[in-house]
């Protein structure tokens, strides 16, 4: 059953926009002034006749009076209220609903301030990491271009609106995610619209994965590419040929500090468009919700790779149509995080290895199974953490296989949207005590700690030897 629509703030703003008193609005809608007063104070819901009367009288879209946006504000407020700094204030659900209903602008201001506070904490954590590298501080304070681009995507929640919408519009025209073969569709589009001839070369280990000759309009793809990777390279070529202006506008607004960072970001934005073409936003978001984010089902039904699906899930943050906020990471066997994106408060280590308690490290020995872990970060926020290992096939004898672990997770408040939470007692189950990295982790009793924290003194006792050879004071 659809919930009642309480939208007093929207009615009040509409009335103030047209400089009307409550009595004047009541006359236009043919209701009593007392009824308008009760609606604006959220004592009574909007009925269908009143919504239709508003639409006719003012020419507005009645869907703007729905409860979805308010529900989203309340969910965001609940996330922010989980911050340990608010723990003693006992912020209840009804308090948050009242704020969201009566003054959503104030709620947005509060959320914006909390995001700023969160980013300040992340900046402090990154500063701690940089200090461990030594040097005079001046050069260390300058992020390398690759890291600068990573930060850029992190702070925009890994979502680029104009590129995503442009890709979705093209994908809809081409019928992507509607039972079609994306690689064939993209190749036909390149030939018909751009005059580009697509050829598949030999599976030569030394050849590039794709090579576009702009003069002859010839695109050669490596025969070693999987069907999913072939579709991605075709989509990236379409992005390069058709979305260059939008990408350049995005780069200008980003104002990267070096030409190298700008070039890295340009490539990343073309790849972003490719991912959005293969898995168009609205269709993929709806499918993910319907399948409760079952990764195997999503891979099977879209034809995309597991990495493409996980990466795309981390980008579904379109205002007004947000998906579940995920973090996504790709980790190699040495513990290096080669990809990291997060629409959550989950933080990744910038330097050195990630937390050894995190289940991505166990994924390499799990035989391709999806590992499920409830993890708690030092700030008290709990996450449903998924991890699975993937292997890139070798191209010749003697070549070392490339193995990676993919990590995908969301806060446990979104557990109802996740098939992986079924059967878990989220309240009683013990949580793995995660950290960002040992250098900035405040936990004093972790048996897997590799280094002492930067901001704490330690003490050693030759007469007493524990699992960790020092005591954190």
Radius of gyration: 26 Å
Tally of alpha and pi helices: 16
As a percent range, the share of strand residues is 5-15%
What would the average pLDDT be, to the nearest integer?
Answer: 83
Overall tally of domains? 4
Number of strands: 13
Order of helices and strands: HHHHHHHHHHEEEHHHHHHEEEEEEEEEE
Strand order in the sheet with the most strands: 7-6-10-9-8-11
Helical proportion? 40-55%
Our measurement of the CA-to-CA distance between the termini, rounded to an integer number of angstroms, reads 56 Å
Low-confidence stretches: 132-142
Please outline the major beta sheet: 6 strands, mixed
Structural class by SSE content:
alpha+beta
The 3D shape can be described as globular
InterPro entries: Cro/C1-type_HTH, HTH_RamB, IrrE_HExxH, Lambda_DNA-bd_dom_sf, ScfR_C, TransReg_Diox_bact_type
Family: Belongs to the short-chain fatty acyl-CoA assimilation regulator (ScfR) family.
GO molecular function, one term: DNA binding
GO cellular component, one term: cytosol
What's the helix and strand layout?
Layout: H1 8-17, H2 22-29, H3 33-40, H4 48-58, H5 68-81, H6 93-102, H7 104-132, H8 145-155, H9 161-174, H10 182-194, E1 197-200, E2 210-213, E3 218-221, H11 227-242, H12 244-254, H13 259-278, H14 281-290, H15 295-302, H16 306-313, E4 317-318, E5 321-322, E6 327-332, E7 337-342, E8 371-376, E9 382-392, E10 402-411, E11 432-433, E12 458-459, E13 471-472
Parallel strand pairs: 1-3, 8-11
Antiparallel strand pairs: 2-3, 4-5, 6-7, 6-10, 8-9, 9-10, 12-13
Helix pairs in contact: 2-3, 5-6, 5-7, 6-7, 8-13, 9-13, 10-11, 11-13, 12-13
Protein name: Transcriptional regulator
Domain HTH cro/C1-type: 11-65
InterPro entries: Cro/C1-type_HTH, HTH_RamB, IrrE_HExxH, Lambda_DNA-bd_dom_sf, ScfR_C, TransReg_Diox_bact_type
């Amino acid at each position: 059953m659809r919930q009642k629509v309480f939208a007093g703030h929207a009615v009040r703003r509409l009335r103030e926009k047209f400089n009307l008193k409550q009595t004047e609005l009541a006359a236009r809608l043919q209701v009593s002034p007392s009824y308008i007063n009760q609606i604006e104070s959220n004592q009574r819901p909007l009925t269908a006749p009143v919504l239709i009367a508003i639409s006719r009288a003012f020419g507005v879209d009645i869907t703007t009076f729905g409860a979805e946006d308010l529900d989203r504000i309340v969910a965001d407020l609940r996330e922010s209220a989980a911050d340990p700094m608010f723990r003693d204030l006992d912020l209840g659900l009804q308090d948050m609903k009242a704020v969201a209903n009566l003054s959503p602008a104030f709620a947005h201001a509060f959320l914006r301030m909390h995001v700023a506070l969160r980013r300040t904490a992340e900046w402090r954590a990154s500063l701690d990491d940089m200090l461990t590298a030594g040097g005079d501080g001046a050069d260390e304070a300058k992020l390398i271009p690759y890291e600068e681009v990573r930060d850029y995507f992190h702070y925009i929640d890994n979502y680029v609106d104009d590129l995503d919408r442009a890709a979705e519009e093209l994908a809809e025209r081409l019928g992507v995610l509607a039972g079609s073969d994306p690689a064939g569709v993209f190749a036909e589009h390149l030939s018909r619209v751009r005059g580009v001839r697509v050829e598949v070369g030999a599976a030569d280990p030394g050849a590039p994965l794709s090579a576009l000759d702009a003069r002859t309009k010839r695109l050669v793809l490596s025969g070693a590419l999987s069907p999913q990777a072939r579709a991605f390279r075709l989509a990236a070529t379409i992005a390069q040929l058709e979305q260059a202006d939008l990408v350049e506008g995005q780069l200008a607004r980003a104002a990267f500090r070096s030409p190298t960072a700008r070039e890295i970001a340009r490539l990343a934005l073309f790849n972003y468009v490719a991912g959005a073409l293969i898995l168009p936003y609205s269709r993929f978001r709806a499918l993910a919700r319907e399948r409760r984010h079952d990764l195997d089902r999503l891979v099977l039904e879209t034809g995309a790779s597991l990495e493409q699906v996980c990466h795309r899930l981390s980008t579904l943050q379109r205002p007004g149509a947000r998906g579940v906020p995920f973090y996504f990471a790709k980790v190699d066997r040495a513990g290096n995080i080669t990809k990291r994106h997060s629409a959550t408060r989950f933080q990744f280590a910038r330097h050195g290895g990630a937390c050894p308690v995190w289940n991505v490290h166990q994924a390499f020995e799990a035989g391709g199974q999806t590992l499920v872990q409830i993890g708690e970060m030092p700030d008290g926020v709990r996450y449903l953490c998924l991890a699975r290992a993937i292997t890139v096939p070798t191209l010749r004898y003697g070549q070392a296989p490339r193995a990676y672990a993919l990590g995908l997770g969301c806060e446990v408040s979104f557990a109802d949207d996740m098939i992986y939470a079924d059967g878990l007692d989220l309240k009683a189950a013990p949580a793995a005590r995660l950290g960002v990295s040992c250098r900035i982790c405040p936990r004093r009793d972790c048996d897997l700690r590799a280094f002492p924290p930067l901001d704490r003194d330690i003490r050693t006792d030759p007469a007493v030897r524990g699992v960790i050879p020092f005591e954190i004071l």
